[in-house]
Each structure stands twice: as structure tokens, then as C-alpha cells.
């Protein structure tokens, strides 16, 4: 039993190491290819895929304990995200601090009567910003059947992005 657990752990560590090495190899190959001339429109996204984004997750002012838990869960969705206690800071102060620390995206979660109901995602430094309304939020803390959340990077599949914005 212990041997199987040890072998399983070694296998998972080996796979994680292989994934890290392949990601670094892809980034290393991509960097020289992107050093060519590009328009000012694409400059912001020039290093997309080479440098990992820095995402900051925070809450509205004076959050309830339920909103704090939701912010923790949102942090788990974005790989490499950080959660910050907002305190009494205003949004413009948060944005300036994020820009100074090379944060690429700011996510703010809102609540009404201790129910998370809003999500603002802002791409820094020049936007765009999207506001999402959330309905019937069920957190993993609410359901005992959910185990611990995996911290593996998500696999995203995008199809049919045929517009000019989608091709960018």
C-alpha cells in the first residue's frame, strides 16, 4: 500500500516536471518568433503565452465572510492569481498599485446581502473591462461532497473565433 502511494506520488511529480519543462520550452521557442516588428495594437499582447499573467483578486469594501470565501474560490480558478484584502482602498488606488506591480488583470467580486452577485474583470493597463452578474452562486464550501480543488492549470478550448477580434 505504501509502495503504491509512493509510486503514484513519483509518477505525479514526474508528470508535473515534464509539463513544466515542455511549457518552458514552448515559451523559449516563442520568444524569438515574437521579436519581429508588430503594430501598436498588438504590442500589449506581444508576450501573451510567453510571460504568465498576474491576476489580482479582491473584494468590494467591507466584505462578508461569505464573499471572502468566494474570492478565495475565484483565486483558485485563475492560475497564479493573488488575493488581496482591499480594506478601505478606492478602485483608482488599487488600479495604480496593480499597474506599479505589473499586474495584468484585476478581478473585483461584489455582493448584495452576503450573496456574491457581481464580478468585474479589468485588463490592465488599457482595458477592456467586463462586468458580469452572478446568480444562484453555490460555492464548494456550501457542499460537503466537493473535495479539495485541484490547482492544475485549466485546459481552455476556443472554437469559431472568426471575427477580427477573435483572430487577434
Please give a quick description of this structure.
With 168 residues, this protein is α/β, with parallel strands linked by helices. It has helices at residues 2-33, 65-77, 91-100, 164-167; strands at residues 55-59, 82-83, 105-112, 115-123, 129-133.
Describe the protein's architecture and organization.
The chain has helices at 2-33, 65-77, 91-100, 164-167; strands at 55-59, 82-83, 105-112, 115-123, 129-133. The protein has a five-stranded mixed β-sheet, covered by helices on one side. The protein starts with a helix and ends with a helix. The protein folds into two domains: 1-32; 55-142, Brix domain (Rossmann fold), CATH 3.40.50. A hairpin with a 2-residue loop joins strand 3 (105-112) and strand 4 (115-123). The mean pLDDT is 84. The chain has 168 residues and is of the alpha/beta class. Residues 16-35 are annotated as: Disordered.
List keywords for this structure.
168 residues; 5-stranded mixed beta sheet; ribonucleoprotein; 2 domains; Rossmann fold; ribosome biogenesis; alpha/beta; Brix; globular; 5 strands
Amino acid at each position: 500500500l505504501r509502495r503504491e502511494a509512493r509510486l503514484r506520488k513519483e509518477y505525479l511529480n514526474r508528470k508535473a516536471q515534464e509539463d513544466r519543462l515542455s511549457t518552458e520550452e514552448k515559451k523559449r521557442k516563442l520568444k524569438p518568433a515574437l521579436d519581429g516588428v508588430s503594430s501598436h495594437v498588438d504590442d500589449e499582447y506581444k508576450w501573451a503565452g510567453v510571460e504568465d499573467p498576474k491576476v489580482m483578486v479582491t473584494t468590494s469594501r467591507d466584505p462578508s465572510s461569505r464573499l471572502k470565501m468566494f474570492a478565495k474560490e475565484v483565486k483558485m480558478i485563475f492560475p497564479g492569481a493573488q488575493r488581496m484584502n482591499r480594506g478601505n482602498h478606492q478602485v483608482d488606488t488599487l488600479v495604480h498599485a496593480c499597474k506599479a506591480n505589473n499586474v495584468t488583470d484585476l478581478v473585483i467580486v461584489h455582493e448584495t446581502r452576503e450573496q456574491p452577485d457581481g464580478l468585474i474583470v479589468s485588463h490592465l493597463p488599457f482595458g477592456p473591462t467586463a462586468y458580469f452578474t452572478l446568480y444562484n452562486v453555490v460555492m464548494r464550501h456550501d457542499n460537503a461532497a466537493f473535495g479539495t480543488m485541484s490547482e492544475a492549470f485549466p485546459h481552455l478550448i476556443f472554437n469559431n473565433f472568426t471575427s477580427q477580434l477573435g483572430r487577434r
